[in-house]
Amino acid sequence: MKYLPFMILFCTIYGAANYYIGMRTWDALHQLIPLAPIAYWCIIIFLTVSYVVSSIWNSYYPTKPLNSLLWIGSYWLAMTYYAFLLWVFVDILSMVNSFIGLLALHLNKQPFIAITLWTIIAIVMIYGRWVATHPIVNRYQLRLNKRAGNLSSLHAVLIADVHLGPLVGTTQLAKMVSTIQQLQPDIVFFAGDMIDENVPYFIAEKMPEQLKKITPPFGVFAVLGNHEYIGGYGEQAIKALEQSGVTVLRDSFMKVADSFYVIGRDDRSSARFARKQRLSLATMLKGLDQSLPLILLDHQPNDFSEAERSAIDLQLSGHTHRGQFFPNNLITEKVFELDWGYLAKESFHVIVSSGYATWGPPIRLGNHPEVVEILIEFKQD
User: Fold this and answer.
1) DSSP H helices in the chain
2) Per the confidence metrics, is the pTM higher than 0.70?
3) What is the tens place of the pLDDT at every residue in 307-359?
4) Which of 17, 87, 251, 338 could anchor a disulfide with 279, C-beta 3.0 to 4.6 Å?
């Protein structure tokens, strides 16, 4: 019931958008569509409710998800997004044309316009899915101005926002594990949202067995993201990840090889969904030897000032997906100081990943999913 206001708002907006799209498409193509109006609208209603119905079902029966309906609904969610934007654009052009009288026709009622629009959307879905399932390796090299015991360098891999579940399953997970194994890092960092709100499904599909294959010398470290909390499975997610051989840091830290610290912050969403306020960095860092490099995992890259003030050397984050598909990236660029990539502020360094997979619509457009490879050089005598 705590999600009821959001669900009502989402369903109202989504339903209105689908009605608008349905009306515009019918106005332009009804002479070419071999269906009675009632049959046509039944199809539109089915497509509209498929994502909501499957999501609600999966929340009650997580190990028996309505996968087919979820896939249909997830693709239709993306198609609705682009169809709405394109139909609004066509309507604006049609309105301008009605004032200047350039063309003696109603653009928004022309079959060729509707056919072109939906062809573009189909191409976007196909290409977007291809991009989403072909992650790239992004490499960064940086130098931290601190000594790290006997270590001269550290070869790390950063993974964020995998969203393992019905839409990102064992095939993509196996591909991720294989990529990490090929890179042969010293250490692996998971920066949150490893599991997509459905820990029972993660366990039932034996995904922990895949994660156990990641065995770097210095271990695998993770923090929770907002999606582990949204599903109400925060504690179960920690247990499942730890059974996968992952060390989960929740407002805690670990000294690695007597050379550097890995610090993991609880996600900001824990206050809302788990009623647990996360600790301040100043509180967390008490007792640490701050002459050693401090590597911070914090899922959401909302505010770098606290980490910078606390003498953190490197912050690793995710969450943004870099908007996942255009033009959302234009929004994330404005919302976050750094929505993707690398930023250095004197001795403070930040890397934000665009994420390994997808959430909701299973497509990417305008950016790539990624595995982040980081070569860290430490100060030497």
Assistant:
1) 4-29, 37-60, 67-100, 111-132, 170-183, 199-204, 207-211, 226-230, 234-243, 270-273, 281-284, 305-309, 328-335
2) yes
3) 999 999 999 999 999 999 999 999 999 999 999 999 999 999 999 999 999 99
4) 251
